[in-house]
From TrEMBL:
GO molecular function: GTPase activator activity
Top-level taxonomy: Eukaryota, Fungi, Fungi incertae sedis, Mucoromycota, Glomeromycotina
Signal peptide: none
SUPFAM superfamilies: Ankyrin repeat, Rap/Ran-GAP
GO BP, sorted A to Z: regulation of small GTPase mediated signal transduction
Protein name: 8023_t:CDS:1
């Protein structure tokens, strides 16, 4: 992919020695203001933090959707409702990868159920076509079909949360990338069989993207026909990987990531700024004073169990307060935090009544302001505000699950919906289950096992809530 982050316009420069740092900054950054520079203390920890800043985007495991499209099919419901396929599609799957049994599968599963068989018996898996990269294909027709579910939520939960998808058409025709309503699907590789020689399978390839996805390679040949299975497989692997990476630059996917990245950079800088001279007795930095005010506000509100005024909370964040500050929990509360009951649900949980009460107050500091808000109320306005200011929904603290699971434990229906609608990946069951699995093997010990028990034990309210949210998103979130 072309990367223009390091390009400098103008004629080539002949440098003798190193360019002065100020001149270099002025060349790279127009309107450079020296007064805004902050001197950082260079430490081993800072070096590692800067090097690992973008490592979260470097992947070697990918999940890619695969849809079968019969000659007469045009709608999303038709594509997700297929229970039979054609011999042409079956032969194509043998080119795409190896058919593996999911139960007990040890490789990259891409969110499919390898313990209980809930995602079907088999799937298509590829490893080694490009270096040591792994791809798990979410093949729609291999995921269980639910006759009573018109929208096939189980299938769409996996494929609708992929970023790239292969669409196999028995008969080639134009494909509309907006046929499937999804916030995440941005790149489609459309494969259609064509006849060039008797006894030879050949395939016509089209690449269709949503608005905002930049150009990516490899370029299609002219004509875009492949009759060599190995060449086709290599081309498809390169295309779906590059397409998925390119799609992250589309505004719909890049904006939430950039907000979180900016917050991380601010946090790194705040911790690495060299202390000013004590003799100068400078005033506290504005950001630091805002952090103190936000922490104090939330600690006081946790004591009385009432959320902070929204205007005051918003002003602190807009003035630079860090939403990822840790917050001590009070030892005792004068009143319990308000809980919004799940009025629409009458199905009882399998847990006992004592286990359905609010979780016991932990001695650990809350990871950030979002977790404090979840304890205090079920108002999605606070949640959306914090997401926009880069709050971390998956904390580094192993004593806590991700924010969605934490909200589920407090029955925060509206906040759970807000998280699913605004944070890519949280609606994928893998992102929730992975946190629980990771924590259960960490030093969190008994607490992590309790988290897993609470999450899986709710056969009533939370499970029904999750299903309702996913059903609602079929008509809303995927628009």
């Amino acid at each position: 992919l072309p990367d223009n982050r390091g390009l400098i316009t103008g004629p080539p420069m002949s440098l003798v020695g190193e360019m002065p740092s100020e001149e270099l900054l002025e060349t790279i950054l127009k309107g450079f203001n020296r007064q805004k520079l902050k001197k950082l203390e260079l430490t081993f920890e800072l070096t590692n933090q800067l090097l690992s800043l973008d490592e979260t985007r470097l992947q070697k495991s990918y999940k890619i959707g695969v849809l079968y499209c019969a000659p007469s099919q045009q709608t999303e419901i038709e594509l997700f409702s297929n229970t039979t396929t054609s011999p042409l599609f079956d032969r194509f799957l043998t080119i795409l990868g190896t058919k593996v049994r999911l139960l007990g599968f040890k490789g990259f599963a891409g969110g499919l159920d390898t313990r209980n068989g809930g995602s079907g018996e088999y799937s298509i898996y590829d490893s080694g076509t490009w270096k040591n990269f792994e791809i798990m294909y979410h093949v729609c027709t291999l995921i269980p079909y639910v006759k009573s579910d018109k929208h096939q939520v189980t299938r769409k939960r996996h494929i609708g949360n992929d970023i790239a998808c292969i669409v196999f058409q028995d008969v080639r025709r134009p494909f509309n990338p907006y046929t499937i309503r999804s916030q995440f699907l941005h790149v489609y590789v459309v494969v259609s069989p064509v006849r060039i020689n008797v006894g030879t399978d050949a395939y016509w390839i089209d690449i269709v993207c949503k608005d905002g996805v930049p150009y990516f390679g490899p370029a299609l040949p002219e004509p875009p026909i492949f009759d060599d299975p190995l060449a086709l497989k290599k081309f498809l692997v390169a295309t779906v990987i590059n397409g998925r990476n390119a799609a992250w630059k589309a505004p719909k996917l890049s904006e939430p990531f950039l907000r979180a990245r900016s917050a991380t950079i601010r946090d790194i800088v705040d911790k690495a700024i060299l202390p000013q001279s004590v003799a100068a007795t400078p005033p506290l930095p504005k950001r630091f004073s805002q952090d103190v005010a936000l922490r104090k506000l939330l600690k006081e509100r946790l004591k009385v169990g009432i959320p902070p005024p929204l205007d005051q909370f918003k002003m602190l964040l807009e003035n630079g307060a860090n939403p990822n500050i840790r917050i001590s929990q009070p030892r005792s509360l004068s009143s319990k935090p308000s809980v919004t009951p799940l009025d629409t649900f009458t199905h009882h949980s399998s847990l006992s009544e004592s286990e359905l009460t609010l979780p016991q107050r932990s001695v650990h500091k809350l990871p950030n302001a979002l977790f404090a808000i979840i304890i205090l109320c079920d108002d999605p306005l606070y949640c959306k505000l914090l997401i926009n200011h880069g709050v971390e929904v998956i904390p580094n603290d192993s004593n806590f699950p991700n924010a969605f699971v934490f909200a589920a434990r407090y029955k925060r229906v509206q906040i759970m919906k807000c998280l699913l609608e605004n944070v890519p990946g949280l609606s994928d069951s893998e992102s929730v289950d992975a946190v629980i699995v990771d924590n259960s093997g960490s030093s969190a010990g008994t607490r992590a096992r309790d988290i897993k028990r609470i999450w899986t034990g709710f056969t009533g309210e939370v499970k029904k809530l999750k299903n309702q949210i996913i059903n609602n998103r079929t008509n809303n979130l995927y628009k």
